[in-house]
Specification:
The protein has helices at residues 37-47, 83-96, and strands at residues 3-9, 26-31, 53-57, 69-74, 103-112. The chain is an alpha+beta fold. The longest helix has 14 residues, at 83-96.
Length: 114
């Protein structure tokens, strides 16, 4: 079973915007591996600072924004270097002291349709 972790700095929503509603993209980490609750908590603490970040585990940070909202998720194409994803995977593996399966890093941008 896979795990998805979304991280976003607090206060980044611009609900009055006519287009993009986030000042910075949401970081999304998709990990095709199973984790204990303790491991999930450790990974969450590694990837996000609870003082300045909002985090969602296996759910969207904004499941019901607006009826006319869209999500644009972008990730590197196969074969393209992904330094942030690679470093996150290596750090999580060191934290857990084990290998983890497939790891993908994405940036998500939320917006409203005009």
């Amino acid at each position: 079973m896979g795990t998805r972790i979304e991280v976003m700095p607090k206060g980044e929503i611009d609900s009055d915007s006519d287009g993009l509603i986030l000042q910075k993209p949401i970081k999304a980490y998709n990990i095709d591996d199973s984790f204990t609750d303790k491991e999930i908590s450790a990974i969450e603490n590694l990837l996000a600072d609870p003082v300045v970040d909002d985090v969602a585990i296996n759910q969207a940070l904004f499941p019901n924004l607006w009826p006319d909202s869209v999500v644009i998720e972008k990730s590197p194409l196969p074969g393209v270097n992904d330094p942030e994803g690679k470093e996150a995977r290596n750090t999580i593996q060191k934290l857990l002291d084990r290998e983890i399966d497939l790891f993908q890093f994405h940036n998500n941008t939320y917006g409203k349709e005009n």
